[in-house]
Write a structure and sequence with these properties.
With 222 residues, the chain is mainly α. The chain folds into two domains: 113 residues, no CATH class; 69 residues. Helices cover 77% and strands 0% of the residues. The longest helix has 31 residues. It starts with 9 loop residues before the first helix and ends with a helix.
Length: 222
């Protein structure tokens, strides 16, 4: 099967992520869960999440190995270690579809199903926060290197040259975001609104859901 470049329909991405997490936590003690999670990794890679899956591996492999090893050393139970690895894998894989979703597409999808505006605004800010925070951290670090501030591992340098500028930038961004939302007429009350570009599920979204359900059924029956 050739990987698709089209990203998943936002609501399908979020709900499928919740399904993977719940299923992984419930069946964590079984070896079938491990095979299911491996299948989910491949399935996500085929449906527009390949880069996110690959970015997850450098952090998941050492952290997973550490938690699994520590669990085995403390309990001496291979089943408990397997369950720990499956739970971590389910949490990481379940977050990938949501992280890979464009905040604007998510907002359009929630608005189309008449989700309360408070929830829509919260999802928009939540999905935009992590990329924004990553970008601000990078800018502050670049400013530190330009000024020759020294290592961020030094507590004094970390506080004065990194933490304070980062907090100030985030406060300014929050003020700008509040003005931007108000300027665009985004209200929390009941007010009529239109959607410029409507998001619709594609046949690939239904195929993705069927693949997840088939994998879960196989993990339970086999």
């Amino acid at each position: 099967m050739k990987p698709t470049r089209r990203k998943l329909y936002p609501l399908v991405a979020v709900l499928s992520g919740v399904f993977v997490i719940v299923f992984g936590l419930v069946t964590a003690k079984t070896l079938a869960c491990t095979f299911f999670l491996c299948g989910v990794f491949v399935w996500l890679s085929l449906f527009g999440c390949l880069k996110s899956c690959l970015r997850m591996l450098p952090g998941f492999i050492p952290a997973g190995a550490a938690f699994v090893g520590l669990t085995y050393l403390l309990s001496g139970d291979a089943g408990a270690a397997l369950a720990m690895g499956n739970r971590l894998g389910a949490l990481c894989l379940g977050m990938i579809p949501g992280v890979n979703t464009d905040p604007v597409r998510m907002t359009r999808s929630l608005s189309r199903v008449h989700t309360p505006r408070a929830v829509t605004l919260g999802m928009l800010i939540a999905l935009s926060f992590v990329p924004m925070l990553r970008g601000e951290i990078r800018r502050v670090r670049e400013a530190m290197r330009t000024r020759g501030a020294g290592s961020v591992l030094n507590p004094k340098i970390f506080y004065r040259a990194f933490l304070i500028p980062l907090v100030m930038r985030l406060v300014n961004i929050s003020d700008t975001l509040a003005l931007s939302v108000e300027t665009r007429g985004f209200t929390l009350g009941k007010a009529p609104y239109t959607i410029y570009k409507k998001e619709k599920p594609a046949p690939s979204d239904f195929l993705y859901v069927l693949g997840l359900l088939a994998g879960a059924a196989a993990a339970i029956l086999l």
